[in-house]
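Expect chain and fold; thus:
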Amino acid sequence: MDDVKLTCASLHECGTQEVSSQNDALLDLRNQITHLFCTRLNANSITVLQEKLRLMQRSSYYLEVQHDLPPTEEQQQTLNLSDSTVLSLIDHWRLEGALTLANTQVKLLLSLLGMLYEEIIRSCRELEVFIIKCNQGLLDSDMAVSMQEKLRQTHQYLDDFESRMTRNLGPLDLPNQLIMNTGQHPMAKLSASLAIKMPVVFDRCKSHVTSYTAHLFWEVATQQSEELGQEFEILIKSLHPTADQGEFIKTTCQSYCIQFSNLTPDSYYQFSVKRVDVLNLVYELWTDTIILKTTNVPK
């Protein structure tokens, strides 16, 4: 009888220890998830991720061609594809292939970043539900194992998102050299890379209209100072319900502001700004647009 009592007591202690161990594991998992919410998944961090994704989606992407120089000189020299001399050295069909490859790489990059962001948000919601159930004592061991894996995946999604922001930019692995080997340019060797420029956006605080004139100002997102040599395309379209509705004016300028005159008072106008398309542009979808109404002329 004493042996039976000892055995029961031993089983009870083992059961108690197992329950205690499970509780400790759940508490540790809960603490790990809570720490993640306080650091990489807090409201500010999610906003930053969303803004990074939006900037990448709105940016302009370009194919840059570099001339690989001998080791005694500079390592690389970026060439301007609008230069007729440079174009004369490059095989047209191989250049088209490089532009297509760069376009595909940008689209894949943006698709991957979008999917990673969605997975991060989805994982965030699942982890929040886990915390709620944990606080209510409604968990089982299977759910704990599942959430442990979800926590690991979430960290991986966050790491991949950050690394992919720049990993696919830079040198392109071209199947063919841009210059055909004719023997005429034995030292000429070109390489290609993918470059990014941040989106152009109107300064909505400074841009304004009067009765007859529009004063437009814009900037490059995240850029602290104006970069020289940039060219922008500005489009003004009348939205006033009169005979001139739908008419537009398109112009280009190298400054970060412009003035339009001879507008109609008390009328709506749509203004758009973007970078001027160039030969090596491979991907660009974003054009910033604002609608402003000219003031009425006092009687």
